[in-house]
Amino acid sequence: MTVKLVDATISSFGSVFEKFKAEAPQNKVNLILFLADNDPSTKLSWCPDCVRAEPVILKKLEALPDDVALLRAYVGDRPTWRNPQHPWRVDSRFKLTGVPTLISWENDAVKGRLEDYEAHLEHKISALVSVN
C-alpha cells in the first residue's frame, strides 16, 4: 500500500485541494488531516493533540492494503487558528472546531470525520477508513 502525502497551508489549499479532488477516484481511501503548524522554535506542532495523533494516523494508513491519499492541511499558528473567522472554521464543507481533525473524502463530499478528541484512537481511524 502507498500513502500519497501532500501538504497544504491556508494560502495553498485551494489549488492543492483541487488536485486532490481530481485524483481522488484513483485512490481507495482519500483523507484530509487538519493539523496545527509547527512551532519554529521547537520544530513540533504547537498543538499537543496533533503531536499525539499524527504518528498514530500515519501508522494506521501505512498498514492498509490499499492506496491512500492524505492531504495534510496546516491551519496556521495558534493566533491564526483561534480566529473565529478562520477559513476552515467557516467553510461549510469542513466546519472545523478543533485540530487535529481527520476527514474521509468521497464523491466530492465529507463521508466521515474524527474530531480532535478522537483522532488518535486506532480503532476509530480503522472504522473511518473502512467506510470508504
UniProtKB/TrEMBL annotation:
<dbReference type="InterPro" id="IPR010357">
    <property type="entry name" value="TXNDC17_dom"/>
</dbReference>
<protein>
    <recommendedName>
        <fullName>Thioredoxin-like protein Clot</fullName>
    </recommendedName>
</protein>
<comment type="function">
    <text>Probable thiol-disulfide oxidoreductase that may participate in various redox reactions.</text>
</comment>
<dbReference type="GO" id="GO:0005829">
    <property type="term" value="C:cytosol"/>
</dbReference>
<dbReference type="Pfam" id="PF06110">
    <property type="entry name" value="TXD17-like_Trx"/>
</dbReference>
<keyword id="KW-0813">Transport</keyword>
<dbReference type="InterPro" id="IPR036249">
    <property type="entry name" value="Thioredoxin-like_sf"/>
</dbReference>
<feature type="domain" description="Thioredoxin">
    <location>
        <begin position="16"/>
        <end position="128"/>
    </location>
</feature>
<keyword id="KW-0676">Redox-active center</keyword>
<keyword id="KW-1015">Disulfide bond</keyword>
<dbReference type="InterPro" id="IPR045108">
    <property type="entry name" value="TXNDC17-like"/>
</dbReference>
<dbReference type="GO" id="GO:0047134">
    <property type="term" value="F:protein-disulfide reductase [NAD(P)H] activity"/>
</dbReference>
<comment type="similarity">
    <text>Belongs to the thioredoxin family.</text>
</comment>
<keyword id="KW-0249">Electron transport</keyword>
